[in-house]
Amino acid sequence: MNEGSYSKVARAINEELAPASPVSRQQVYEWYTRGTRNAAGEPFPDPVRRDEEAAATKPRLFFSVPQAVAWRRAGLSENSMRQGRNRLYA
Description:
Shape: globular
């Protein structure tokens, strides 16, 4: 399975979709923690693996990169953008 942390997901989205504004790992973190929904009404995918014993400087959550890219490919919901969420990340 192709999995990765927030940084790997952000890099894959930037490489595959080339959004107008590049996506950062902080944006991916916000999509996950806020439960942001895409235009299809789907929440950001849940992690496929957790490493609870990771060092403080290492990732603890790992996501399916293809699922995260597919989620972003659908676009962000207008409702979440209207509420101020992701206003810079469309």
